[in-house]
Amino acid sequence: MTDQTTDLTFKPAARKTRRVPTEFYVYFAIIFLATLPLATFTWMLTAIRSRSLTDKGPVARAWSQARIITPIIFSAR
Predict the structure, then answer these.
(1) What is the pLDDT of residues 12-68, one digit of tens each?
(2) Which of 16, 42, 48, 72 is the most buried (most CB within 10 A)?
(3) What is the CA radius of gyration of the chain?
């Protein structure tokens, strides 16, 4: 006897594409612009102390700070 209750056709699961809300980009931009002056200041101090330019510039530092802070704000909801 055959089992007619099982569907043996394979259908890959549809991917869920999660859209990042526009609000996330707005918060990211605000945090990035807020951290840019402090990142520039700390980058200058590090460059003066070590007498060489560091690997990460002020924009990269501010970008990484914004990438850390923004998801924390959205996960707290």
Answers:
(1) 666 677 777 889 999 999 999 999 999 999 999 988 998 887 778 999 999 999 999
(2) 42
(3) 23
Q: d(Cα 67, Cα 72) in Å, to the nearest integer? A: 9
What Cα–Cα distance (Å) separates residue 49 from each residue in 26, 40, 44, 55, 75?
A: 35, 14, 9, 14, 37
Residue 24: CB atoms within 10 A of its CB come to 14
Decide: 64 and 31 in contact? Cβ < 8 Å: no
- In the block, tokens 């460059």 appear at 47
